[in-house]
Amino acid sequence: MADVIAVDVGGTKLAAGIVRPDGTLLARVSAPTRLDLDGDALFATLAALIDQLDASGAAAVGVGCGGPMDAGGEHVSPLNIPAWRAFPLRARLAAHAGLSTFVDNDAKALALGEGWVGAARGAHDYIGMVVSTGVGGGIVLDGRLLNGDTGNAGHIGHVIVEPDGHTCGCGAQGCLEAEASGTAIQRITGRPPADAPLEVRERTGTLVGRAIASVANLLDLPLAVVSGSVALGYGEPFFTAAQRELDTRCRLDFSRGTRIVPGALGPEGPLVGAAKVALNHF
Fold first, then answer.
1. pLDDT tens digits, one per residue of 13-29
2. CA-CA distance, 239 to 172, in Å (whole number)?
3. Closest C-alpha to 274, from 89, 122, 80, 96
4. Burial bucket for residue 46 (CB in 10 Å: 0-12, 13-18, 19+)
5. The whole model's pTM is what?
C-alpha cells in the first residue's frame, strides 16, 4: 500500500502532509486559514501547501475538513470558513493532485486516527472529539464509524449544554460549540483561549463532559478521546472537570464509568486521521 497525501482544513490553519500506510507522518507543512480571502484564493493557499510536498509515491489524497458537508465532501460549508459555502472541495483537490481524493469531517477523521494508532486503538465503541477553534466529533459504534444520512453524524458540538446560552453559528442557543470552543471562549472572555483563567478552563471541561454524558447515555459508549488545542492546552483542569461531570451525569448501569482521555496523536492527529479516511477506501 502506498503513501497518502493528508490534508487538514480548519478554521485556524490549513495543513498538508505525507502519511505512510502504518500511520507515520513523514512530512508536514501548514499555513494560517486566511478568513479575509475569497474561496478560490483560500483554495490556492491549500494547493500551494500540497505542492511543497514530495508526493511522488502517493496513491491518494485524504482530507479532514470542518463541516457541515455533503456526503463524501463533494461540497463543504465549514461554519468557521465563511468563504466556503457549498465549496466543491473534493473535486478541486482531485483535479489539482491528479489522484483519487476522499473527504470527511475533520473530527470524524481524527476519531479514525485515534482508533488506528492512538488512544482508542483496539476500542470498538467510542467518541473522538476535537475541542479547538470549533468543536466536532466522530462516533465509532460496533467498530464502525457512523456517517448518518448526509455524512455528518457525530456533530457533538451542537449538543445543547446551556439551554439559554449563547447563540451558535448554526443559529441555535447553548450549543457546546457556542460555549466551549476557542472561538466562543475568546468572545465570552474577551481574551485568547490560551489566557483563560482556571475557572474558564474548568467550565469548558464541565460542558464537554456534559455533552459526552448525553452521547454516552444514548449510545452506550464507554470512552471519549478528546484532542484539539483547547482541550490539550487546558490539560489536567479540563480533563478532571470533564470526568467529574461524566461521573455525575452517567448514572445508568451501562454508562457509569465512561472515561474521557486525551488524544494520543497530538498535533499529528488531524493529518493521520485524514490519511485514514483515504486508506479506508483501499
1. 999 999 999 999 999 99
2. 26
3. 89
4. buried
5. 0.93
Q: Encode pLDDT of 76-129 as tens digits.
A: 999 889 999 999 999 999 999 999 999 999 999 999 999 999 999 999 999 999
Burial of 54 (0-12, 13-18, 19+ CB in 10 A): exposed
Amino acid at 32: P
Q: How far apart are CA 71 and CA 173, in angstroms?
A: 26
Residue where the block lists cell 494560517: 32
Cell representation of residue 218 = 444514548
